[in-house]
Amino acid sequence: MSGFAMRLKVRHRVGAMVLEVALEVGARPVALIGPNGAGKSTLLKIIAGGVRPRNATIEAGGKCWVDSSAGDFLEPARRRVGYVPQGPSLFEHLRVWENVAFGLEGSREEKRAAALGWLKRWGAEGLSERRVGALSGGEAQRVTLVRALAASPQLLLLDEPLSALDAIARRQLRGQLAQTIEALGLPTIIVTHDWRDVAALGAEVVAMEEGRVVQRGELQALSETPASAFIAEFSGV
């Protein structure tokens, strides 16, 4: 996975705002920060394929995902992206292991075995037969992350994956997520409002405001010379 690289240029109107971003992503995690409405979540949706941009080029993993000028648009299912959006995303009518197995290849038995293996790795094998409605918030988010990872993505997109959890669950999942990403060498882009997520992942920070990148670099460097009041507050200045 360490050889993965993505280059994108996007210009896309979102309401009254124009999202205009050029970004390169490699093996190292990238943390998108910025105030609400800066375009961070929309950028993730464009990368995942959930939003078709008006003017963009995206090259990733040696393939063209998007080239608006040529009319090229690679369908989301072919991008091998693990996407964890904000809010609930599990299938309520399926059991936990069936959620994790969704989209995997093989027979039902093979998919179940693979799902149980991932749940065990994350200490969640005891949840395998539960319905989604019986899960706590922390349990549901753990299963959501496991489902994204089980699909063997070449890129992981996380939109504030820990923000709705209590402090204990957030700390536990943050550590486990960081360990898994490092062990897999999995390229990751995370949207976050918590500097602890940046530190745990060892991520490079990309700060966005009003649809544009205003600063990029190490968290420590940003804290020393913040380009905006938001960045100063985020980094604890």
UniProtKB/TrEMBL annotation:
GO terms for molecular function: ATP binding; ATP hydrolysis activity. Signal peptide: none annotated. The keyword ATP-binding applies. InterPro entries: AAA+_ATPase (IPR003593), ABC_SmlMolc_Importer (IPR050093), ABC_transporter-like_ATP-bd (IPR003439), ABC_transporter-like_CS (IPR017871), P-loop_NTPase (IPR027417). Residues 2-235 form the ABC transporter domain. Coiled coil: none annotated. Keywords: ATP-binding, Nucleotide-binding, Transport. It comes from the Bacteria. SMART domains: AAA. This is ATP-binding cassette domain-containing protein.
